[in-house]
Amino acid sequence: MTPISLRTATQLGCLILSGALAACSAGSSLGDSPRGSAGSGNVGGTALDLGGSAGGLAVGQGGNGPMQSDCPAGQSTSVSGTVYDPAGSVPLYNVVVFVPGEALSPIASGAACQTCDGDFSGKPVAAALSDAAGHFKLDNAPAGDNVPLVIQVGKWRRQVTLAHVDACTDNPIPDKDLTRLPRSQSEGNIPHVAIAIGGSDSLECLLRRIGVDDSEFTPPDGAGRVHLYRWGDKAAKTMQVGGASATVPDASALWGSLDTLDKYDLMLLSCTGESKLGVENADYEQVRAYADHGGRIFGSHWHNAWIRSEAEVATDPLWYPQVVQFASGAHGFDDPLTAQIDTSFPKGQSFSDWLVNVGASTTPGQLVIQGAEHTMDSVLPKAILTPDPVSYAAGPGAQRWIYATDTQLNNQTLQYFSMNTPVAGAECGRMVFSDLHVSTGSGDTTKTPFPTGCAKNPLTPQEKALEFMLFDLSSCVQPDEKPPEPPVVVK
User: Do 219 and 143 sit in the same domain of this protein?
Assistant: First the structure.
């Protein structure tokens, strides 16, 4: 196997000229790394969506550009490596890696249906998915100089350029910094994220620890891709932006307007520490509508109230299909809870394998949770669509991921579940809820302005579990009972 030589594309709008990919210039010579060794230049990548489209590959048109090769029987041109999170630390599952056949289209921000059959621009000519170890192997890759490579999961996207790919052999990429997701807008596309800071969790610190640059965290009127709001009286009312103090607005400005919600790809809701959300009735309708037409939502602990309905008739605007059985005696666990991973569906098995591969679990199928709570018992076998008269969906409206036995109540407790939205409708958006405080044991505090309150400790096992769920939440929407598949390639 020949280690691949790489260099990073550093200018927008690479041109496709006469079947060859013209190398981009950033005002200085990049130079080619010697063949047979990894490039060590700037790993900034292409800022894909800021004023132009990243270059694609003109395949099979002759000229001096990269070409898909006719190899002897039993041989193939391939590129292999491992995909990492933006920090370059944790391998990621189910990330698409592909060679584009044409320039990539810009990625629009905001809630939208992203199904897996039409989520990738650029007409891929070779594509692969990363496995539970983060590893990928791109078969039938073009050989030659200046081969573009795209790394994408949902609206996370980064493009680099492979300086040379040898024909009819595998070309491993040894430098993990070249196969990670973008840390900032200057490196690629990052989803537009809204975070509601709460007093009992610190999802904003988790996003920072997985590698998102501090420059991307701003109030809603800032230019960052991650906008901070606050909810409840326990979270800090200010944050630091570029060394200066800035006000963090109340989250009522977020979910109080569907137009505002729709501007975001993803909304992360940190637990406030209060059992009652204290929001307006109209807010429930708007948050649910946001998910139904393509929004992605993660909520920790008490934020499962967004889908909990006490309405008695379907005509009540607060009614929402029931997908889980809520506990009659909610309580927390003082001791660590050994939970089980549901491996009955393809992603569940991969999740179990991934937890072991990244050091979050020492026993396959198990995860030890600190600060677990019990507000939900189980996923319902069939979702209840209407309460009076009762009508049911054909199957469950949610997918169980992590569960455990509550010896105090002598029943099960549901710790993580996901649901595609709308319930029992054409799948468009997605929600994930956890019944734990993700940041327990991390050392974070939300009482201190961001980012000062974020600890610099390594990811805990349950933070790694949430990292998996965050990127799964970001990915294209598909039925959970089906294994993920790479995009269709152009023949």
Answer: no
